[in-house]
Amino acid sequence: MTLKMSTQLYVENVALERRFFSAIGFTEIAFQEVEGSETVTFAPDNKGNALLQIWDIQFIRAVSPEVAENKPSLLFTVDDIGEWHDRVEALGGFTSELETLGDKQTFNFQTPNGCFFAFMEN
Fold first, then answer.
1. Is the Cα torsion angle 76, 29, 92, 15 positive or negative in sign?
2. What is the pLDDT of residue 50?
3. Among 53, 52, 32, 56, CA closest to 44
4. Do residues 112 and 93 make contact, with C-beta atoms less than 8 angstroms apart?
5. Dihedral, CA of residue 32, residue 34, residue 36 and residue 41, to nearest 10
6. For a Cys-Cys bond, which of 83, 107, 111, 121 suits 115, CB 3.0-4.6 Å?
7. What does the H/E/C string look like for the chain?
8. What is the mean pLDDT of the segment spanning 96-113?
9. CB atoms within 10 A of CB 84
10. Quick one: average pLDDT of 32-54?
């Protein structure tokens, strides 16, 4: 059995998030229009089983208003935390300093639509 997990993110501007996640090195898996609205799916690592699907929040408010305002709290775990920090920081916007949490380094960041996520080393 193959199982993939997809987290859905609802944003005001899909194009901004698309450029952001492409710029930090995520792999675009799919892009489509659904009833005049855009959605894009990314994989942080094309060998992994996690997906991030970005939807236009106006579309979600129309078809599924009960979930439209939900924001996930995502933590990506990676081997090369310094490289990821540099990629995200280079795009501007909020990126925290690398911090040590227990025995691992971590940082958090904000995407162009104001969503907060974090990276932590494996």
1. negative
2. 87
3. 52
4. yes
5. -40
6. 111
7. CCCCEEEEEEECCHHHHHHHHHHCCCEEEEEEEECCEEEEEEECCCCCCEEEEEEEHHHHHHHCCCCCCCCCCEEEEECCHHHHHHHHHHCCCCECCCEEECCEEEEEEECCCCCEEEEEEC
8. 96
9. 21
10. 90
Best CA proximity match to 42, nearest among 9, 88, 73, 65: 9
Alpha-carbon gap, residue 53 to 72, rounded angstroms: 12
Mean pLDDT, rounded, of the chain: 93
**Structure tokens that stand for 84 in this block:** 């990821």
Cut 0.70: pTM above it? yes
Distance CA 97, CA 105 (A): 10
What integer is the mean pLDDT of 58-69? 96
Q: What are phi and psi of 38, to 5 degrees?
A: -95, 145
